[in-house]
Design brief:
about 210 residues; alpha/beta; 7-stranded mixed sheet; globular
Length: about 210
């Protein structure tokens, strides 16, 4: 996969999907997402109306889950037309009982929707972009999330330092500077449920968008 994907050339992500080289796609949602939303052991007042965004949505499993669990209108955003086409097929075969999920091709950093989001879920998108763009990522999150809305991140993979191709080296504290004072961290913990290969390598963090 790393021989195909050049994070500075967006079209190479589509090449990876076309070649079926997407080891980050688990074929479903990650257990911590269901834990934090459905079990809600943190007592968060999750929105049940409005819009949700999943940047780097892949096959769309997470967007479809947020629709089914919360009844939101979810948008899955990708830069690969190939995987967006697949996500639309999956959504058509498994329509959620409430809410709506749509998928589209766009550049997250230039994306300009007409309505802000109540919830954004970030899984591997943060480690897919070059680290030099992380502050830009944070500014865009502040722009897209409405005051009082939530940013939910599953920080993964928390592995030893490596340099080069994605997934890029990450630690939970790497989110602090990009998000700055515009967000309040309300959850920061190790998930109680993880896939076997993720145990000890991920962390669940939730921020709430401040009014300023």
């Amino acid at each position: 996969m790393q021989k195909i994907v050049n994070p500075n050339i967006q079209s190479t992500w589509d090449d990876a999907w076309k070649a079926n080289l997407a080891p980050w796609d688990a074929g479903g949602i990650q257990p911590p997402l269901k834990e934090v939303i459905e079990a809600n052991i943190d007592g968060i007042d999750w929105p049940t109306a409005g819009r949700a965004l999943v940047p780097g949505c892949g096959m769309g499993h997470d967007a479809l889950y947020l629709v089914a669990a919360l009844g939101l209108r979810a948008l899955g955003l990708e830069i690969s037309q190939t995987v967006v086409d697949w996500a639309n097929v999956i959504a058509a075969k498994n329509p959620p009982p409430k809410g709506k999920a749509t998928f589209g091709v766009d550049d997250f950093f230039t994306f300009s929707p007409s309505e802000k989001f109540s919830l954004i879920y970030n899984y591997i998108f943060f480690v897919a972009i070059p680290p030099k763009h992380r502050n830009e990522w944070g500014r865009k999150m502040a722009e897209l999330i409405k005051p009082g809305g939530f940013l939910l991140a599953l920080v993964f993979p928390i592995d030893p330092y490596s340099d080069g191709s994605p997934p890029h080296y990450v630690r939970p504290e790497h989110y602090n500077e990009p998000l700055g004072h515009k967000f309040e961290k309300i959850v920061d913990r190790v998930p109680e449920t993880s896939e076997s290969g993720h145990v000890g390598c991920e962390r669940l963090i939730v921020w709430k968008r401040n009014a300023n």
